[in-house]
Amino acid sequence: MSAATPARPEPAPDASALIVLSGLRKSYNLGRPNQAEVLHGLDLRLQRGEFVALIGPSGSGKSTLLNILGLLERPSAGSYRLLDEETQTLDEQALTLRRRRSLGFVFQFHHLLPAFSALENVTLPALMRDGRVDAAARAAATGMLGAVGLADALHKRPAELSGGMQQRVAIARALVNRPPLVLADEPTGNLDRASSDGIFQLMRHMHREHGTAFLVVTHDPRLADRCDRVVELVDGRIESDTPRPAAAAGGAQTA
Amino acid sequence: MNTLGFERRVALRFLLEGRMQSLLIIVGVAAGVAVVTYVSALISGLQANTLDKTLGAQAHVTISALDDVVTPARQQAASESRFTRSQPREQRPRSIADWPALMAELQKRPEVAAVSPMISAAGLGLRGEASKAIALVGIELDRYDRIVQLRSKVVAGTARLSPGEAMLGSELAADLGLAVGDRFTITTGSVSDGARVTALVDLGVRELNRRTVYLPLRSAQSLVGLPGGATSLDLRLHDVWAADTLAAALQAQLPYKVEGWQQANAQLVSALNAQSISTAIIRIVVAVVVVLGIASVLVVSVVQKQREIGILRAMGATRSQVQRVFLLQGAVVGALGSLLGVALAATLIDIFTRFVRGSDGLPLFAIALPPALALQVALGATAAGVLAALAPARRAAALDPAQAIRL
């Protein structure tokens, strides 16, 4: 895989970096006639505790990049260091454990488990990790659901909740393990404007409260404008990477 | 069970979520388990009953004196042809030499439960003008009772064989017009003796009932002209199926004819074997159907749950955790199905014993559900569930989470 990129010297330890991508490429159908490269050598660096929007037109490679950052797909070439650890050399099991420990996911379509109540959905990470939900894990989940404003809906099934409420459960689930990074794929794409604003404010609030870094893929320029930094992906390349120092203040006002 | 807490929880929820699907397959497994359990119990009941009836009236192994044969005056060479014809010897009762010593030896063998000496010969039973051919059986009642439970077969009178007493097959008694307490005469050609009837027995086979006369061993010895002798030794074993092996071993050691009951009832044994094979075939076919049924439901479930599997994998569920979730579903379906199935089989067996009756109004034969069989079938069904889940579970574990989530 690394044959496509020249060998890089091992970077110096970098404690403040959450994500360091260098020369990251992703091709589908490698070696077949329909081979297609989706990401053409990305270099990107995310600090701990950043709140970043990832924007770009459909087909620009946002989802692919998000999957790679989420350790759900492997890049074809280049390097992805997560928390100062090269992920290219990790095996499937190790990637799974990194996902469990270091990442939270929020998807566009909530993706809660329909057979589990809100509270059970949020205690799933603990159950997965320890094989049981102890009092501390239960308290953490209850607290997190309270923090997203769902203290009254602990025992409701996802089907009994509105879209916005479901997304709040998903955020609580992504955050309950206190991961350093939450990846959100169009978290408001499916919601009306009011719910959408509510969710976004909630994410900003959690960011401030817990220092969790967020990478939010969005189509909505209104939301992108309220992030600290906007990375624009066009045709598999980073077109622009703009810090928005004003946004933090704006976010603080709305929260 | 902390280690499987996650898998258990998710597996049960997945099963509950597809309630109808789960219920149908559990009922399907139950039906299969019930059929296997019921047929197994029925066949083993039938076999036990047949064996009981057969072995109730005969010894497991019989050692008897060799037949008299003609000994050629000169050994014939292979190249010679023979123009003489030998007349076979007439057979007369012969005794086993020093049988008390042999009996003591046999009793020491661990597989032997009881040994009983016997004189058996042919004779005539006479009373007034009636004269019937009889099979004369000289026994020591207490010993013989341990071989065939003769006392339990008494239909009239009390089992007792003091000198001058006899026990008769019920049909023979009717033929000779005898009742308990009556006297009759037994003759073996040269010797005649009188005896008083103490009991009538039903040996379960009409032919035996029509001919058998039990006498004390000593009376029989003098009637047959073998003072102190015994024409055969009857053995009862702890394990009926060891009879052939023991018979072969004894045959190699003793200069007598040794026959196990399996040899004497070769046809019955092959019929029993055929039944066992049929049961095995039914078991295998049902097991295959159960495995395929569970597998097909789980395959569908994996497809239906792709997205959930993807979410769980994204959240950090390992491949083996996902695999175990589905293996556990197979095990749960198998276990619940087998519980239900064993209960169903128990009901069927109860109905059978209650409503299927012989001509005499008594149950045709006893069938029961041995706990060992129930356990064996239940474990088998659970194992079948896990086996059935193997392929779907692998498939679920191999799902690409990125793709599964996008669905």
Short description:
The complex is a heterodimer of chains A (255) and B (407). By secondary structure, chain A is of the alpha/beta class. Chain A is 36% helix and 25% strand.
Q: Which range best describes the helical content of chain A: under 10%, 10-25%, 25-40%, 40-55%, 55-70% or over 70%? A: 25-40%
Helix content of chain B: 55-70%
Total beta-strand segments of chain A: 10
Strand order of the largest sheet of chain B: 2-3-8-5-7-6
Q: Total domains of chain B, how many?
A: 2
| Radius of gyration over C-alpha positions of chain B, nearest whole angstrom | 33 Å
- The global form of chain A is globular
Number of helices of chain A: 8
- Note the beta-strand portion of chain B: 15-25%
Give the assembly state of these chains: heterodimer
Strand numbers in spatial order across the main sheet of chain A = 6-7-8-3-9-10
Total E-strand runs of chain B = 10
Termini separation of chain A comes to 45 Å
| CATH architecture type of chain A | 3-Layer(aba) Sandwich
Low-confidence stretches of chain A: 249-255
Shape of chain B: elongated
Written overview of the protein:
The complex is a heterodimer of chains A (255) and B (407). Chain A has 255 residues and is an alpha/beta fold. Chain A has helices at 62-69, 92-102, 118-130, 135-147, 163-175, 193-210, 221-225, 245-254, and strands at residues 17-28, 36-47, 51-55, 77-82, 85-86, 103-106, 181-185, 213-217, 229-234, 237-243. Chain A has a single domain, classed as Rossmann fold (3-Layer(aba) Sandwich). In chain A, 36% of the residues lie in helices and 25% in strands. Mean pLDDT of chain A is 85; it is low at 249-255. By secondary structure, chain B is of the alpha+beta class. Chain B folds into two domains: 2-54 and 269-406, no CATH class; 99-230, no CATH class. Chain B has helices at 5-17, 19-56, 99-108, 141-148, 170-176, 206-211, 217-224, 243-253, 261-264, 266-304, 306-314, 319-355, 371-398, 401-406, and strands at residues 61-64, 112-127, 130-139, 154-157, 165-169, 183-187, 192-201, 212-216, 232-237, 257-260. A six-stranded mixed barrel of chain B has the order 2-3-8-5-7-6, surrounded by four helices. In chain B, a hairpin with a 2-residue loop joins strand 2 and strand 3 (130-139). Chain B starts with a helix and ends with a helix. Classes of the chains: A alpha/beta (255), B alpha+beta (407).
